[in-house]
Amino acid sequence: MPRRILSLMLSALLLLANTAGPPELRVAAVTDGATLLLEDGRSLRLAGIEPAAPPMGAEPGQSWPLAEAARQALAELAVGQRLSVRGEARTDRHGRLLAQLVRGDGLWLQGELLARGLARVHTRPDARALAREMLAAEAGARAAERGIWRTRAYAVRPADPDALRRDRDSFQIVEGRVLRVSKAGGDAYLDFGEDWRTDVTVHIGRAVLREFVAAGIDPLSYEGRVVRVRGWVGLRAGPLIEATHPEQIERLDGAASSLRETPHPSTPPPDLSDDEEE
Q1: Residues 6+ apart with CB under 8 A from 122
Q2: For 157-251, which CATH class?
Q3: What pTM was estimated for this model as a whole?
Q4: Which of 216, 211, 231 has its CA nearest to residue 164?
Q5: Distance from C-alpha of 111 to C-alpha of 100, rounded to nearest angstrom
Q6: Would the CA dihedral through 125, 114, 137, 169 be positive or negative?
Q7: 191 or 17, higher pLDDT
Q8: How much is the pLDDT for 270?
Q9: Would you tell me how many other CB atoms lie within 10 Å of the CB of residue 181?
């Protein structure tokens, strides 16, 4: 075969490969409100969300508000559907694929679960694409009190040190006014009270601080502002949330607060007789 013809054939094959749509995924089962078992044996986690699920430390088999509803909703949305990855897929530390998923009819799975109030936004350094769109979907569900936003188990927590100590080692969304922002050793600290040794703090490490600057955010701009922070609550002196990327912190700037009274997360979930998903 002449080289010129062979070259043209190879070019055509490359063009077809580049213009072909993304490979389709087929779902065999759904294990929780954000995890899919694919027919090829791989596990896929929906990137950027935290589904309705029991917190760490809950008793094995303990019922938790809307956890089963979230699993069932994802099964209805995904099983038997043509699914493709939106953007880039990654592999997380557990060996699972981590991706945004879209159905063949254009429905975005993360957006649908958030809009139904069956998940919260939980971005990570390696899973933060479409953060703005996800936050908007979550905000709409919260304002309408859909799904988890009709229960106290998932409610936004105030930046109160005594309350957050009881939320240690759990993912929470916390709101409060930043009293002071300080920098030390290249790190930044957002303090929500007078005594940093006991009050709620958000820590932004030196490497992460560079990402805030690259995003056009000066942490000093949070001082005196009401913010919403999402992340795992740890305990160093007082309750502490480690900021690992800028999308974790929202400046509310006059937006209505989402605060509601919340129980200790290890207590039995509230009676949902008036809160069940329709």
Answers
A1: 48, 49, 50, 171, 230
A2: mainly beta
A3: 0.83
A4: 231
A5: 9
A6: negative
A7: 191
A8: 45
A9: 19
Write out the two tokens for 4.
């010129």
- Tens-place pLDDT, residues 257-274: 666 544 444 444 444 434
224: DSSP letter: T
Residue for token pair 């000093």: 220
Integer Cα distance of 211 and 78 in angstroms:
35
Helices (H), ranges, 82-160: 109-115, 131-143
* Secondary element (H or E) of residue 10: helix 3-19
Residues 146-184: tens digit of each pLDDT: 999 999 999 999 999 999 999 999 999 999 999 999 999
C-beta atoms surrounding 220 within 10 Å:
12
Residue 218 phi/psi, 5° resolution?
A: -100, 115
Give me the residue label for tokens 């799975």: 109
Q: CB–CB of 219/188 below 8 Å?
A: yes
| Other residues' Cβ atoms within 10 Å of the Cβ of residue 38 | 15
**Among candidates 131, 187, 196, 193, which has minimal Cα distance to 159?**
193
Considering the domain 27-150 in this protein, what is its CATH number? 2.40.50.90
Model pLDDT, residue 55? 75
Q: Measure the CA–CA gap between 39 and 121, rounded to whole angstroms.
A: 27
What gap in Å lies between CA 259 and CA 271, rounded to an integer? 20
Residue type, 163: A
Residue spans per domain, the chain: 27-150, 157-251
